[in-house]
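Hello forum,

I keep getting stuck at the same step: I have a sequence, I want structure tokens, and every attempt I make locally crashes halfway through. Rather than fight my setup again tonight, could one of you with a working pipeline run this one for me? It's a single chain of 456 residues.
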Amino acid sequence: MRIERDILGELSLPDDCLWGINTERARLNFQISSFTLPFGFIQAIALIKKHYALVNSQHGNLNQDVAKAISLAAAEIWEGKLADQFPLDVFQTGSATSTNMNVNEVVSNRAKQIYREQYGNEPVIHPNDHVNLGQSSNDVVPSAIGLATLVAFRNKLSPALQQIIEALEKKEKQFNKVLKLGRTHLQDAVPLTVGQEISGWRTQIKWAFDQLTVISNELQKVPLGGTAVGTGVNCSKEVVESVLEGLRKDLGIHIVATENNFASQSNVNVFYSFSAGISRLCLALLKFLNDLRFLSSGPLGGYAEYRIPSIQAGSSIMPGKINPVALESASMVCFFCLGLHQSVAFSETVSNFQLNTALPLVAFCLLTQIEVLANSLRNLREKVIEGLDVDEGRCFLLAQSSPSLATPLTRVIGYDLTAKVVKHAVEKKIPIKQAVMELGLNVPNLDELLDLKNFI
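Reply #2:
Ran it on my machine without issues. Output:
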């Protein structure tokens, strides 16, 4: 054990941990849940620390050797190392100052180790004076949320969406000539093709994806340099501009300064908008998942038009029963993400004066939504869509027997007389053509009017 001191007194810490007394107090104060902040968020904070150290050195604000050690330590976190050194609960101080200090302390202590390895002596590398130089939690944390969300969207959710859209497009082309029954109000309607139906699902998902892409551009505007309340106290514009340039090079994303730090640091509007975009995506997915669950229901008592792959036994009591488990899993992920969005929405209600005080929760909700959705989309594509099939015979049978096939007759005999044909066909449970003949109606080109291909 080692002893560390601050203005509140002393604490004992495990000698092998890299965090310090600020982190330890927060760890002890907030043992609320099993939820810690996503490591992507920690990495984004560390990347910011790396570039501030390098730029502060270039501007003569920080010893070059110290700056090098800090930047190397921060880079290790960015590269995925030291993940076990960030133990803090999501439900902590609303500015995430505890997590910012957690990163400062881990970087500071790891930088001391690096410095000793290179120069052989004990340096002074202070978590606040050196690692946090020119920064505040109040500008670093919202900036890190934006950076982490952009990276996760680019690396995880965006590829998963692109792949599922492409998989649906393949199925759309595969079944583009398969006729099936259309349904509105859960009742029989005029026919369409399976490909056309799939195109509706695919396009709704693509529209949501496109909207997320547009909203993500707003995340590129960060309030770095605003420090405590947006005024930029203790930080120069020249330093910030150089830090932003470094971030652009490392991330390959056009990171720029926000137009107004006071606006960007005092609310979570842009994060709410991105989360709302994810909600739209979830609703589009739920439309697809619900439709497919019903259309693949059966095997004998349901619609049984689509066939989804069998991936596991469905019942502990009914042998041979197969359930749409992958669709149910994906649905629950959507429900979960919709719930997380409500937390982001409520977080906006504590945007008081110059700071929002629910930032750790916002970071957790955004990055968790991206993580679980990306994983679920991959699972859905691999377990369901790529093996999706249709029963062409059943699709045609149901389409051919629909009373809505009478719809083109309105052009010849009018709406009211066509309604009589439909009523007769439904009551007698006979095809539309037979109903026309039994009613003694003269309809020219009847076979052509009732040809299913003309409906699509």
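The CA atoms of residues 38 and 408 lie 58 Å apart. If your local run keeps crashing, start a new thread with the error log.
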